[in-house]
Amino acid sequence: MRNVSQLLFLALSLGLLGGCGGGGNGNTSGGGPPAATHFSVSGPTSSGAGFAFTFTVSALDSENNVVTGYAGMVHFTSSDPAAVLPSNSTLPNGTQTFSATLTTAGFQTITATDAASASLMGSLSVTAVAGEFPVTSFGAKGDGHTDDTTAIQSAINAASAAGGGSVVLSVARYFTAGTLVVPAGVVLCGPTEGPFDVPGINPASTAVAATLLITSTSGPFITLQGIGAGVTDLLFHYPNQVATNAALPNPYPYTILANAPGTKVARSTVTNAYNFLDIESGRVMAQDLFIGAFNTGINIDHAYDHVTLRHLVHSVFWDIMGNQQFPQPIDTWVLNNGTALVVGRMDSLEVSDFFVYSRFTGILLTDSSDTTQNPTCGYGTGSGIDIEGVQYGIVVTASNTPGYKFTNVFLESQADIGVAAVQVRAGGSLAPKIEINGVSQVGPTPWADGPFPTPPVGEEIVVYILP
Amino acid sequence: MKTTLAIVLLWTLCAGSATVARAVCIGASVNSFGAKGDGHTDDTAAIQSAISAASSAGGGSVVFGVARYFITGTFVVPTGVVLCGVIEGPFDVAGFNPAVTTIAPTLLITSTNGPFITLQGIGAGVTDLLFHYPNQVPTSASMPTPYPYTILVTAPGTKVARSTVTNAYNFLDIEVGRTMAQDLFIGAFNTGVHIDHTADRVTLRNLFNQVFWDVLENVQYPRPIDTWVLSHGTGLVVMRMDSLEIHDFFVFSRFTGILLTDSTDTSQAGALCGYGAGSDVDLDTVQYGIVVTATNSPGFKFTNVDIGAAPGLGQAAVQVKTGGSMTPKIEINGTTQRGVWALGAYPTPPIGEEVIVNILP
């Protein structure tokens, strides 16, 4: 094994020979080093207007090899007259990284030119985007171990101070020890469209998306506190959660608490959460989410207006990460405790394209534990609901007028432990009412209470069961 | 042997490129074209310049920052140009007046001449914006000031997404097929969405017609203007339409939730009315839930419909009327109704016309 410096030396020697064969020009003569013919300027394709970003300049020869002996001075210009640019600089060993800030939003260029030879140049095209606040500009490292909580909160606060904006994370692993509060008009987002899958990939060690590594056990990790606040295109992961061979998960607070109307959680993934999303306001949207939460996927309460849930996938993402065969020991706990959706006080739920795999209960429609509300339960509609591998599919203990209506529902029991596909229970604050138009159920073994056990007297269930 | 050098070069490239490239709404900011966004300077010309520049470039995003862009004119959006905001919508306005407080990329509309935005080219669109009419009357008024539609769609492949409108008179007029409208908060006094002249499919998903005018003033519903809306406002009007798809459609406090009827343009070739399907439709506090006067074959099919009467004003949850160009036909699989309806919840349709309603107890 030759070491790197030997390889470099050998490569440089070969490059020198090649340069000589080509005859050379410019600043070379005789047996001197090859000529730099142009600069490579590489960096981001977009940046937040007003925020610094880094880019790299390399002196290259006609065959795009780095000219380590380049001894000239590089001068910088930009199409943005207000750009903050590096001062003239050399390129030690032919390559150097610089920082610049574009302040005028729009398509801009940064050009590096040899101070002595205007034809020796290269440029970078960058779109400077207004209203974007890159967390890297606020000191976030994204290296998987430095605590980035303060840096990310600083970016959020800066966006808020500007009236609102997108706080943009890069494809990197942001380790956090604390929690975040997102005020009105600020959206925390990733740079690539989610949601993200994790087959065979541990987000704690590999960045496949803009990833937030959550370790705080104090309060919700993110509180969407202001109207219009949101979270999009992010991957949330709990690196300190137990492995799938554990008997039970570590409890954590909710990953996200939505406290204000107009908030949204979209195109994101969570893995190894205990509880994922707590919606405590109406006019909230959650859509296109991959949810790996051991205990509660989504909880809704105190929602005095419409809430839309669309295309949510609750699965055993913890098994998938390790490429392990289902079921693992922790899945036994989830099959006895986990619930994908719990609905308490809720005025008009809209749920569609809702998928659940391997939980205790798919959907629980019940009374709020906060009895100061009147009423304490909800109503709504849903369609395209697929709940597989559960003890209970849908359980209803209370509903406000006119109850719940679901269409196109498929329910499958978990082998040997399935209890009921749809169960209506007595004892709630208001008579539970559920109407299902088009449902099928299967089970490798029968449901212990029958798929649709007879509801208590005076309470209603209408189920059009497809053969 | 150049592999090592290539690795060194690649490493330097990667080190410099760990950064931001959000997929949506990347392009020239209207601020680059001189738009102020200060809430009072007229930004019409600057925004039109940005639209023209994006169009000249073959298409692109015209980016609005979090600011209040005051506009006296109207815009035509050509092929491949999308007007978009820098933060994901739709936006709520609870306790915020968008005319004075910036909470989103906001367009303040004052023109009374023609639609504010005409999506005229294929693929044109509007996403993640907040539209507000600062000169509209307050909720204490007895009736709203009429304005043309906020958005007129005249080309296929256009889209209106993740946006909010407050204090509009009429919001969205779809006049062509293959159009999508989704994730919209709609505060329009007279007409939320209107569809006509569409010889192809239109998709409406997660539209939320609400009393956002009350919400932004932080006043208790109902206000004087709500009385007018309860006697005039309609969530959705469908005329000539080939294959409507509508899901997660919510209406609160309007005269009619959905009106399925003949086009007033009798010069159209073929049918004057439409057909389609929908699910999860919640029409709350209305005089009429769904009214059907004419349908093209095979009619309209809806599933999971909940209709609530406006207290003291309810007329009918689902009403089929005579006199249209073709026999009205509506099939509802699973509906509930609440409140008191003067004509009965589902008044018996005229002889020879069809309604199939699986009314759940």
Structural summary, described in words:
The complex is a heterodimer of chains A (467) and B (361). Chain A has helices spanning 4-22, 149-161, 317-321, 329-337; strands at 38-42, 46-48, 52-60, 74-78, 95-101, 106-114, 121-129, 132-134, 143-147, 165-168, 173-176, 180-182, 186-189, 211-214, 222-224, 230-232, 235-237, 254-258, 264-279, 284-300, 307-314, 339-343, 346-365, 378-396, 404-413, 420-424, 433-442, 460-465. By secondary structure, chain A is mainly beta. Chain A has a 21-stranded parallel sheet that branches. A four-stranded mixed sheet of chain A has the order 2-7-6-4, with no helix packed on it. The longest helix of chain A is centred in the first third of the chain and has 19 residues, at 4-22. Chain A starts with a helix and ends with a strand. Mean pLDDT of chain A is 90; it is low at 1-30. By secondary structure, chain B is mostly beta strands. Chain B has four helices and 21 strands. Chain B has a 21-stranded parallel sheet that branches. Chain B is globular and about 65 Å long. Chain B starts with a helix and ends with a strand. The chains are: A mainly beta (467), B mainly beta (361). At the A-B interface, helix 1, strand 2, strand 3, strand 7 and strand 10 of A face helix 1, strand 1, strand 16, strand 17 and strand 18 of B.
